[in-house]
Amino acid sequence: LEKMTDLVAVWEVALSDGVHKIEFEHGTTSGKRVVYVDGKEEIRKEWMFKLVGKETFTVGAAKTKAAINIDAVGGFAYEYTLEINGKSLKKYMENRSKTTNTWILSLGGTDYRVVLEKDTMDVWCNGQKMETAGEFVEDGTETHFTVGDHSCCIKAVSSGKRKEGIIHTLIVDDREIPEAVE
């Protein structure tokens, strides 16, 4: 079994539908390039004379654009960088922390990852976009949905401070869930 013998890079990318694992094989003698997303082969090129370049593919339910850049850093050393939506992984994740909230919780022995996309108010739970009902309340808005037989609500309330903006809180069965840091 010669699988993964040329594995040179592994990245974990947190998207709304889950955390995806991207693996990259680069055969520096054959020029072979293989990209795996969540263990599934997305790209395979066996013989390439050009050892540097770029491989593009998509990740996750929303088919997010991704690219692996292969650059020579002197001699036979190579550097591999992952881009998501045209930004470096670091920049993408920094931006994402501003545009999404993520909560990790356990209900009846099952782990759930709930993601709020603040720009669209879409709610994702374990890779599925949820049916939601939004309503205006005295101090902001509430977005209601259910996970299993648990009633969930994301409250959006102004912080009163311009720099902080709106504070989003997940409440499940009348219990506040702390936000996760990914």
TrEMBL record:
GO cellular component terms given for this protein: cytoplasm
Biological processes, Gene Ontology terms: apoptotic process; negative regulation of extrinsic apoptotic signaling pathway via death domain receptors
Locations listed in the record: Cytoplasm
InterPro entries from the UniProt entry: FAIM1, FAIM1_dom_sf
Coiled coil: none
Pfam families for the chain: FAIM1 (PF06905)
Keyword terms: Apoptosis, Cytoplasm
Function: Plays a role as an inducible effector molecule that mediates Fas resistance produced by surface Ig engagement in B cells.
Recorded family membership: Belongs to the FAIM1 family.
PANTHER family membership: FAS APOPTOTIC INHIBITORY MOLECULE 1, FAS APOPTOTIC INHIBITORY MOLECULE FAIM
Protein name: Fas apoptotic inhibitory molecule 1
